[in-house]
Protein: Alanine racemase
Organism: Rugosimonospora africana
Amino acid sequence: MSRTEAVVDLSAIEANVARLAAATFAEQTRARVMAVVSGGGYGHGLLPSARAALAGGATWLGAATVDEALALRDAGITAPVFTWLWTPDDLARAIGSDIDLAVSGPDELRAVRAAANELGLMARIHLEVDTGLGHSGSGVADWPDLLDAAAKAQTEAELVVIGVWSQLAHADEPEHPANDAQLNAFHDALHHAALHGIVPEVRHLADSAGALALPGTHFDLVRAGTAVYGLSPVPHRGDLGLVPAMTLRSQVARVKRVGAGPGASGRAATLAVVPLGYADGIPRAAAGAASVAIDGARFPIRGPVGIDHFVVDVTGAPVSEGDIAVLFGPGRDGEPLAQDWAAATGTIHAEIVTGIGPRVPRSYRTDN
């Protein structure tokens, strides 16, 4: 193995998407899966993750930015791609590459219409309504006007409304009353859209948590991010049948015996140096809180996390230079999960995996 690497199990990504597809393709809804590959596939690699997700049964891909969406197209991926963070300067490239665009207000709609007219192409859009998230989408009061404008543009063959969508604020808390309120608001928004002659191909509200814990939110399409990579969207309910796809590991660079004093442990100890630091995405808050596994045993991080390394206390254990230290993985061999690191450092598991920097090589494996 490389001295340091993030090993990505593409078979796990396939299996996780298959799990999502099975959960959402109910007789009542037959919802499809959009695999969100933003942030370079949540740190797992944009293109390998996208291809594995499609192999697992995803029929759509979601990418936050137009640059990410275009990278998918440039790689020959022809599946529908939806993007929601764009500027007017992005529109010609996006429309020309058949990228679906989120539209949440009249200014955005005008910009899309102008770009489509200039290109002589039909733009594909998804109208976003704010059902309670509060910072994204058309407000309920403005929704009828946006529908009017979109219906007119569609009649004039400038664009086609492919989707109507919204975002849940509390899906990771399935019992939260806001979920029902947002679901009702989304139904109302769809009713108003139909009154304006807009009957979208796809209606999408659910994220990973909604896909696995709120079946009433499935509609035609679910947007799955964390679950694709095996990160439970509702951690207090366990893994939900998902398998973490990333294992972060490195070789012990040095083992040093130190006496009592003001150092990393303040007492006589044996310390192992692991060559990963905050430049690689290791949170400084991990000091004294997180642990790593070496030969199946857990060892705590001692002292501050440096830019290039941290140390673990291996006192009394037969640890040697070159031994493999596993920071997190699927947990099969006693190693921590990304969720364990998140809990130890006061963040979320998605930040842990997405934050692993470009200095860490990615390697890929499958079970095939």
